[in-house]
């Protein structure tokens, strides 16, 4: 009697795997490869005597992420819904653990050292945050549109967001906020409640930037305030306050149509552009590969977003649709802000560019998120075929 369920489960798993979104999978594989190629040129002169140092590390992270993506496809998505409290608790616990054991790097506590690698829990928290909040909302049933449910979801979301903000990591906290808004929207929260949330967000930003500092309460770190001030007044101090953005815009423009190549990209090669493999990686790539190279990258992102939105429509249940919506919008938000800040149309917040920015945690976390999307798609198509 024990063989039947196992045989049925194996059959269901095989059928689900045959219903993966292969176009999404192909787009992600090409993105990973394209990102590795980009990093190989951007970081070629960063480590003397070892031009492949960063690209090797990024490739290892990609391999780990692909293994995690396979595991995420196999795990039933409904498992996260049933155990959303454990997912939420683990997310909070790991972030608190960061404050206890992480060493401060440039005034921030974000990374846990794991031998030769660094683990950034807040990157994985983006996915777990969506899984947990979506589980809470879907579990409310018919009460999902009520004001009490909305406020409870915001309260749950505020915990991880505050912990990330205190690291301090303003950019990642903003990604959490964008994911929370997307989860509430897809779950069917009333427009009036979403409007109230938007107004509250505007008031919060105004308080942090102007009202509280005017009263003598500084919420942001000085460098965070400088970044936001520089965004609102980009010509105020091109040699100091807005130096990074000025060099970034120069790099993007210098790339022209086809780029200056690895050797000719002086902004990147000679380190005129700071953080050219992390915060401003898009600007470096633009200088080296030009409009054509960056257009291909943006089209690949567009393909991933399109297929991700399609996952929402084929999800077999509300939970899958809500999770897919949160993942896709958070992904889109990261791309928009990172690309925008390199051209001066968004503030510099340190948000990584998915699949391109050097960073193992970001690479693995994004591939895990793709695995969850694939699991939702496959099981949704399987349910629809029955």
From TrEMBL:
Its main location: membrane. GO terms for biological process: cell division; regulation of cell shape. Pfam families: FTSW_RODA_SPOVE. GO terms for molecular function: lipid-linked peptidoglycan transporter activity. The chain crosses the membrane at residues 20-39, 59-79, 86-104, 124-142, 149-167, 173-192, 197-215, 290-306, 318-339, 351-376. It is a multi-pass membrane protein. Keywords: Cell cycle, Cell division, Cell shape, Membrane, Transmembrane, Transmembrane helix. It is found in: Membrane. This is Bacterial cell division membrane protein. It comes from Gaiella occulta. The lineage of its organism: Bacteria, Bacillati, Actinomycetota, Thermoleophilia, Gaiellales.
